[in-house]
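Page header: ASSEMBLY MODEL / three components / 832 residues total.
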Amino acid sequence: MSTTPEATGRDAGALLGSCPLPRLNYKEIVLAHGSGGKLSQRLMQEVVLPQFRNALLEPLHDGALFSVGEERLAFSTDSYVVSPIFFPGGDIGKLAVHGTVNDLAMCGAKPLHLSVGFILEEGLPMDDFKRVVASMREAADAAGVTLVTGDTKVVDRGKADRIFINTSGIGVVAKGVNIDPKRAKPGDKILLSGEIATHGIAIMSVREGLEFETEIASDSAPLNGLVQAMFATGADINVLRDPTRGGVTSALTEIAQAASVGMILDEARIPIDEAVKGACEILGLDPLYVANEGKLLAVVPGESADAVLAAMRAHPFGRAAAIIGEVTSDHAGFVLMRTRIGGSRVVDMLSGEQLPRIC
Amino acid sequence: MKYLDEYRDQEVAEKIVADIRRTVTRPWVLMEVCGGQTHTIVKYGIDHLLPKEIELVHGPGCPVCVTSLEMIDKAHAIAQKPGVIFCSFGDMLRVPGSEFDLLVLKSRGADVRVVYSPMDCLKIARQNPGKQVVFFAIGFETTAPGNAMAVFQARQQGLTNFSVLVSHVLVPPAMEAILSSPENRVQGFLGPGHVCTVVGYEEYEPIAAKYRVPIVITGFEPIDLLDGVRMTVKQLEAGTHEVQNQYPRVVKREGNKVARELVAKVFEVCDRKWRGVGEIPQSGYRLREEFAAHDAEKIFDVEQMEKAEPSICISGLVLQGVKKPHDCPAFGTLCTPEHPLGATMVSAEGACAAYYAYGRHLEAAAKKELTPA
Amino acid sequence: MCLAVPGLLLEITESPEGVRMGKANFGGIVKQVCLEYTPEVKTGDYVLVHVGFALSKVDEDVAARTYALLAEMKQLDELNDGETELEVPLSALGAKPGVP
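Prediction written out in full:
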């Protein structure tokens, strides 16, 4: 990809001239490799891609698109390791179904069928497993998809954190739908379907050491219906992305880099629930980097933005939708934000895990 | 949120900037002491809004960054001991010692837990009577009351399995170290607003008088920072060097008497080594002798370790406001939050980390002149 | 340093160990806070909270007065020739020793 940190010249060797100190390499996987930000990106680029280079993988979008006969299909996979497995507003099973349904929807596909792989830890209470499976059934029904195949493995106590779930899915992309991060172009508007950071804070709030008296429920939801409503306006939507790990800014930075365009966001227009904002304030977290579920970003041509926004607001999962910025030809590869008080800053991808702070 | 949102109002911000523009007639160098203030400045792009005559340099007010390498290595050594539950604020989890950080140790089986408040540790100690609960008590004067209360309550409640590893630092000695340095360029200070809710601001008056610098005790929201700059610049233009209080809604001159009393009961002043700066006399707190039963340094047999920082790191100069993060050749390349080389990148509050988080390493590359709307 | 956030005090209690505690509301999030350092606060007051401790009561009168002074200042383009700008008096901000 032409706008990676390496390619834009932020390379140690070039900077230090005659004495290139070796770049520090990780000898082990660390948690930050899974947080959806820079380290995740690097892991993919340095370790995985070199082994599996092919045209279908190259776009590195949420799912792969390919043709079988006349049909264009989308294929996606996602794994869920969230802890705790039950949290306000959902559970790991519900997330696993929504996750793959949404990955397919973000490709512009109508999701059809899911597979599921369970890795269960010895000692997991049977009732917990039943509860998770029932929740998956409910979520699949609500999303209009069927679970058609699966697999279950059990590992020794201590080798899996209660339950890990992988779901994969297949969907069909209608003619005329052309979702590709590279299609973002100057003049496009950036739309967000609702309030940010809710899911990430819901999970954090039930982690030990950070309990709140107030319950914040995860907003995990299947977005395929919302996406269909957006397509029904006839707009030629360029990009769809669900800002999960790494938050809104990581997702937008990836798109800006892929398309070699710049973006400008308006901080005041980004919706956030008051209680979620309060939680971010006391924990010292920046909501722009907190994981989301049940939310999507869309990059649409300027002239269609209002129509798409109206369609989103008319849908139960898009009530708080807003236009939060636009795409420009300036500062290609970078996302700028106009701050609440009129200043500006460049927003970057998440570097590692965002941890609560006292400073 | 009341008492937060209104201090992020664009119209009021513009008015304050307008007043600063009307007032300033020549270049001035100001330092904001606290990492949290640096954070706000960079996050909201405040320095870009100010007239070019005003240069903001970032101070050493980041207790995480200045915790000495030796202390961090001690923390890691304790965390690895069997039977220990090591508790810490989130900030310290990724601070690298000589070899690891607490997160890596956690992945290798150490029982490391993030807490929001030191009082949470008392609960953990009660629930785990067979384990030793150790809390990494870092911070400036703001955090000392909380840490003191945890120790005091542990003694009151007979919690013999709770101890603290203390690495408190104090602001005034750091300011004096900066002001008495021959390389000092700072002419006015935005003082530490939350520190002063505890200690008040009487102790800043002799500093203002001795070094003839205005010190304006400032809050942490964008309006507060702009107002603090405004008040400092007015003093500089008028040639005065008073201590003023920009943050009177929570700061009183005498501070919080009850808090200071308990802090004095539990802690005493001592010399401390500041990472990136060196030893500053009488610049820290340690537990008093009568609380030795809760002093992790005494309870655990941890060896002293002397380790040198990578020589490319200029964090000492950044902490003293002599250099900016982007003056460092390693900034954003060799030295990033993922693999920090020194003090000011190790925590989210350090100037280098704040600059990095808010995209400053990208600004030159973005080639965009960031001016107000 | 240091992250401290204002919250509305909803309730005052005592922990089983006799420590004065309370619940504060931060924009909808309610969290336990220790009130040992603010013996004077009552429910309905705003408190500034750092690492789970209320360190100070928010003085709402002072906040309103000082904010009003800022909000009344003029914009750059509103200033006419000869007009004096609004000065915030040093005494209002406790600059002189001995002023409470």
